[in-house]
Amino acid sequence: MIFKIQPISTLSKSTTTTTTISRAISSLKVKWRKDPKLDQAIEKDKKHKLCARVLKEVLNEPGQVIPLLYLEKRRDRLRLNLRIKTFLSNNPSLFDTYLDRIKPPKSQLVPFLRPSQRLRHFLQREATIYARNEALIVAKLCKLLMMAKHKVLSVDKLVHVKREFGFPNDFLISLVPKYPNYFKISGAGQQSFLELVEWNPDFARSVIETRALEETQLTGIRVRPNFNYRLPPGFVIKKEMREWARDWLELDYVSPYEDVSHLDQSSREMEKRMVGVFHELLSLSIYKRVPVPILGKFSDEYRFSNAFSSVFTRHSGIFYLSLKGGIKTAVLREAYKDDVLVDRDPLLEIRDRFDELLEEGWREREQQLRVQREQVKKDMEMMTMRAEHLDEHGVDD
């Protein structure tokens, strides 16, 4: 038996007045509590993200080369707390150095950086993975547009979040023009927008609705779409909040792809829809987590309330609000087991290959350091033997 999603127009209306509902939602506070395991999941990516930022900086340069001095001057912007030479020494698999002139022919020869042969091989594999997952990327991009109020999003905003959702760097050039049935770019410059041309009903089913449909088909019993609510061990919420959450979960699920223009912004149904949009956005993201400031850029397009970030603590069984690194990050709890991401996006293969490249260089660096330590040890032993020999020879004299 296939469960048919109930249209939004037939959702039950709350009998409580808008003012009372608004007060009920806004007055329910849940104390933020640290989740060390999810924080650790974010911390583990620190070194990877640093390398990715430096790599992006070099690849965006003309000819994908840059004077080492120029990169050194951008350390603050890259949030790099060590000198570029030290970074290169710690990550030998990324770049090659060579001498060239910044302004030929009269300027002096200075060190330049360019992608190593191993890095170029990785970039080729990355392109292959993107090509293999093109249908997934197109579906993600369509879904982002389909959830938007007017099925339109700013090009600048999409470029800003491309890494969060796994889009190629040049997706506006390499991907969008290939699908004129789905996408259209309007405007120009900073006022450019990506519009949805055709609504694909196959894309208009959320992760939660898909999960409910699969369970219904598997068991033959109708399963209502709803959120997985899982509080971490030791997390306790007040009775009032438990009762509110229980009643709120009993409300009909509001699909993020439904038209909600008739719903009051402060209603419980709109809160359910907003949670559904956040759940879908995080599910579409590569790591099932997105910095809150990035989500905030889409407040108008996705109809988020002004105080939308409180949703992540109010619904602590669905989300976790990490403060790691001084940045608020919304994390989808169900995607993780302890500090391990178990709901893996196919595009994470790119991350896996990049990690292999980095680890290869780290092993080489460790081997070099080990050889250096052994050589220093041998030199010290030789110096000690010579000193002892001199002492003995002096005594004989």
From TrEMBL:
UniProt GO MF annotations: RNA binding
PORR domain boundaries: 34-362
Name of protein: PORR domain-containing protein
Source organism per UniProt: Cephalotus follicularis (Albany pitcher plant)
Lineage, opening ranks: Eukaryota, Viridiplantae, Streptophyta, Embryophyta, Tracheophyta
